[in-house]
Amino acid sequence: MTSEEAPGPRDIAVVAFAQTDHRRSTAESSEVEMLMPVLHDVLDRTGLRTSDIGFTCSGSSDYLAGRAFSFTLALDGVGAWPPISESHVEMDGAWALYEAWTKLLTGDADTALVYSYGKCSPGSVRDVLTRQLDPYYVAPLWPDAIALAALQAQALIDAGHTDEPALAAVAARSRSDAAANPHAQLAGRVPQGDYVVRPLRTGDCPPVGDGAAAVILAAGERARRLCERPAWIRGIDHRIEAHGLGVRDLTDSPSTRLAAERAGAFERPVDTAELHAPFSAQEVVLRRALRLDDTVRVNPSGGALAANPVMAAGLVRIGEAAARIHRGASDRALAHATSGPCLQQNLVAVLEGDPR
Amino acid sequence: MPDVLSAPLVVEFPFTRSLGPVQSAFLTGLRERVLLGVRTNDGRTLVPPVEYDPVTAEEIRDLVEVAPTGTVTTWAWNHAPRRGQPLDTPFAWVLVRLDGADTALLHALDAPGPDAVHTGMRVRVRWAAERSGAITDIACFEPYDGEAARPTGHSGAFADAVSGVVVPARLDYTYSPGRAQSDYIRALAERRTVGERCPSCRKVYVPPRGACPTCGVATAEHVEVGPRGTVTTFCIVNIKAKNLDIEVPYVYAHIALDGADLALHARIGGIPYDQVRMGLRVEPVWTEGTRHPDHYRPTGEPDAAYDTYKELL
Q1: Alpha carbon distance A95, A88 (integer Å)
Q2: Residue A155 belongs to what domain range?
Q3: Structure pTM?
Q4: Which pLDDT value is given to residue A8?
Q5: What ipTM goes with this model?
Q6: How does the average pLDDT of chain A come out, rounded?
Q7: Which residue segment(s) compose the domain that B303 sits in?
Q8: Are A58 and A64 in contact (CB under 8 A)?
Q9: How far away is chain B from the Cα of A143, in angstroms, using its nearest Cα?
Q10: Total number of domains constituting chain A
């Protein structure tokens, strides 16, 4: 096959997005009971049924709720019969979306259902997240998620990249924007509060909560039939840094920058950025790495400071960015998801709507 | 919010991990109060040392001793220490670049308060009184205003090097089974088995989990099933389980309760293990103080015909 005959990569778009209201506790629901209404919602938006979906991929972590193989029970909400083509990542749903995107690129499927969920309420997410750390040198010290984020925040302050009032402003802007987001857990005027781990105050930290999100991807003409204004994925890339905290420059995010470059984020300006920055100081890092200036609308949803269902909060960023394109509020948006301590691993997606 | 059941759930086990040669040298060194780094091929010294270069992924084995004194590169004040953390009084989390190292080590700094801590301050290792070859052999760091300590030039070779670590882990949860399973457990407390029917395919699931796994829709209609049922398939257990006071061999079976479209599983008693068969009719045996049937026993009815349960295998 000559290069003239080789088909180009397929155009793939986010055609629908749904999420739960994110709440401090969903003790009245099992994981599948919490997730299933979101799956029905996202399918209803396209008129598709499970049997129409070519590939299903999900993201979650058993450590959150302390239930082994919880994702297999969550599949009950999909209706996986006759047997479906399915996969799961023990990661944020943004990485499940990445897998689904590559599956559609191969041409093996034309549509994909991507979902993720997290129940933080049964356990202590601060402590749960210590279990992802180096088990030899770090995890035995039980440094919790807020402590590690605080080390990063202090490094940023020492480097002159931010200060406590600037961090408070990030937190206030996020919760203020979240007032327009009916799914947000923490919105409106929220006091900055006392230090949790100094220099981070309560207001600099995400709310702890439960929630789920789902997205439908479709390729080419299929996407146009399912959605009035598809959010075309122009590029996605994800990169990871060393696990050793003391090896990294915590004031920078070279993995985000590289992922953004590979996703084509710097080719033209974006008008919107949905950043997965669970801690206020991490937005400072990401804005610099992504070269976002004041012309870019950052986290109009309120971001992870307004709702942080762990394992779903990254997928929610892609969904929120796509939803803005669907409703004509954005033409070119960047969505970012993170994983690991202090922004260790980062995914960047660039989404565009058709010209109006 | 409807009344939901909840119960404490503790997930706890020791992780036993073997060590690579560099990790072994480092942790054995801590036991002997010697701090070791590893040199990368471009001449940087990594502390804590790793087996592979974090930039090039090259295998690195060149151990080099560094000093027990160093400089804080960033810090965070922890006014409320949590379980398992190095100190139980307020302390600073610190990244410390030891003298002679190019990277920083995470640990705790024992200081009187946040005003006594700053980036760039000098600290030294406070060794734990009892050391076993673990990162916790460093009790913490403490402020230090003396000269940089000099390494002794240790080779990194030790007699009796540690080859593994056992790291206990414990996470505490409050388990809530959700709406459907709460209803099921409540009914069991009245010695009734209540499943739920799928509004689409009409199948009755026991135990119910709130969703029909075939149709992907919510189940809600309660359907009392059993108490009698049919053994659809079974196995003979010959290995005694730890903490389980049941004589082997015994039979564990799938049982389709009358009215249910999904078999549940339970032990079969009241019949020699080698006489249990597919189609055997059974009923639950409850004992005082338990929340579910202790086991199922034969009812004495004639066996069920294969056609009546073949869809439930």
Answers
A1: 10
A2: 125-205+233-352
A3: 0.95
A4: 64
A5: 0.94
A6: 95
A7: 226-313
A8: no
A9: 7
A10: 2
